[in-house]
Amino acid sequence: RTLRSGLPFFPGSASNRFHTIYAGDLARLYFRVAEAGLPDVQRFIACDRTPVSMRELLATFCGEAGIRPPRLLPKWLVYPPALLMEAAALAVRAKRPPMLTRAVANTFYDNIEYSGEKARLLLDFVPTTPWPESIRRTVAWYRERGLL
C-alpha cells in the first residue's frame, strides 16, 4: 500500500542486505518439520541462501507492480523521528507501540543475514523459488486479490 500510494521516499539503505523466502517454500519447510518428528523443541531459520539488497528488492517489486521505486531516505533523517515517537508514546503511556520505533528503523538500514544451514542439514530443505520469481508470484497474488 505504501509503494502503491506513490510515496516518493522510503526509509532504507541501498546497501543493506537481508534474506527473503517465498511463502510456498516456507510452507514446505513447515511440512518437513512436522513430518520429521524431531525430538525436543527445534528452531529453524527459513531463508534463501543468498541475501538481497533493499535496492534490488524494491526495484524488482516496483518493476513487477508497475510502480516507480521510491528514493531511499538516509538513516539520519529517519532515526530521530523514531526516537521522538518512542518518547511520546512512553510519555502518554500509549497502549500500542508507535508507528515508527528505533528498532523498526534499524531493520531498514542494518544487514540482516542468517544461515538456513540447519534446515538443510537436518531436513534436507533448500528453498527452490529464486527471490525474483517469488517477487513476481507475490505481486501476482496481490493483483488477484485487488490489493495492488
Strand content: 5-15%
Structural class: mainly alpha
CA radius of gyration is: 18 Å
Query: Could you report the average pLDDT, rounded to the nearest whole number?
Result: 90
H/E element sequence: EEHEHEHHHH
Distance between the termini: 7 Å
Describe this structure in words.
- The chain has 148 residues and is mainly alpha-helical.
- Helix content is 49%, strand content 7%.
- It has a two-stranded parallel ribbon with strand order 1-4.
- Helix 2 crosses helix 6 (131-144) and helix 3 (75-91) runs antiparallel to helix 4.
- It starts with 8 loop residues before the first strand and ends with a helix.
- The model has no long low-confidence stretch (mean pLDDT 90).
